[in-house]
Amino acid sequence: GEALVVVLALMAGLALPLTPVMILSGNLITGITPGLALAFEPTDPGAMRRPPRPPGRPLLTRALLMRTGLVSLAMLAGGIGLFLWELHVAHASLAAARTAVVNLVVLVEAVYLFNCRSLTLPVFRLGLFSNPWAIAGALAMVAGQVFFTHAPLMNRLFHTAPIETGAWLRIVALCAGLFAVVELEKWIRYGGRRSEGVAPE
After folding, report:
1. Which long-range contacts (CB under 8 A, 24 or more apart) does 82-91 make?
2. What does the alpha-carbon distance between residue 108 and residue 186 come to, in Å, rounded to a whole number?
3. Beta carbons within 10 angstroms of residue 112's beta carbon
4. Torsion angle, CA of 29/82/2/133, rounded to 10 degrees?
5. Do the Cβ atoms of 117 and 126 come closer than 8 Å?
6. What is the pLDDT of residues 93-107, one digit of tens each?
């Protein structure tokens, strides 16, 4: 998703929505926190009733590739749309618009962490509080981004700028939209056969 945002901006002749140092800072957060949180995820209910995985099945199945493409395209649309909105509608500075986009990228991954707790089961069936590490990880990502956005030291180091409440609300709305889209995709793909023994294709 991050790569698509940058590539499309370059192809369209736009200013970069994300600078290299912003991408690096975001990757430092998103590359560690979600993985640690998911390492403590309880086993899916009915996991032992699933048939064995065929040895010849690729790790990246059609369903996983489609899920990756869906999330990447949603991040692309949200990132470019938010960047243009902040510049041309909210009349934010370039630094503030970029800061909004990097916050969107990181917080989308914080929200997607909860989608990824199961590839087939809805989040609410797993229980929102069954993995406290996921909640702690998401809160840590949010706190880190607030510090990244509003601390003067971080503004100087990463060329970010404080963003207004309206920008935060737009980021939250886009994150909620992505969460709903992925959960809807799960329901469409697995809803008719959501037994606990269903394995992703």
Report:
1. 82/167, 82/170, 82/171, 82/174, 83/5, 83/9, 83/14, 83/17, 84/14, 85/170, 86/163, 86/167, 90/164, 90/166, 90/167
2. 17
3. 20
4. 30
5. yes
6. 999 999 999 999 999
Determine the Cα–Cα distance for residues 78 and 143; give it in Å rounded to an integer. 21
pLDDT, tens digit, 9 for 90 and up, residues 150-194: 999 999 999 999 999 999 999 999 999 999 999 998 888 877 455
Residue 161 φ/ψ region, left for φ over 0, alpha for ψ in the -120 to 50 degree band, beta for the rest: beta
What distance in Å separates the CA atoms of residue 44 and residue 42, rounded to the nearest whole number?
Answer: 6
Q: Quick one: three-class SS letters along 52-114?
A: CCCCCCCCCCHHHHHHHHHHHHHHHHHHHHHHHHHHHCCCCCHHHHHHHHHHHHHHHHHHHHH
pTM for the whole structure: 0.86
- Rounded CA gap, 152 and 143, in Å? 15
H/E run at residue 143: helix 132-150
Question: What pLDDT is recorded for position 200?
Answer: 52
Closest-CA residue to 72 (of 182, 180, 176, 155):
182
Place of tokens 């709903």: 180
* Angle in degrees, CA 31, 134, 137, rounded to 5: 50
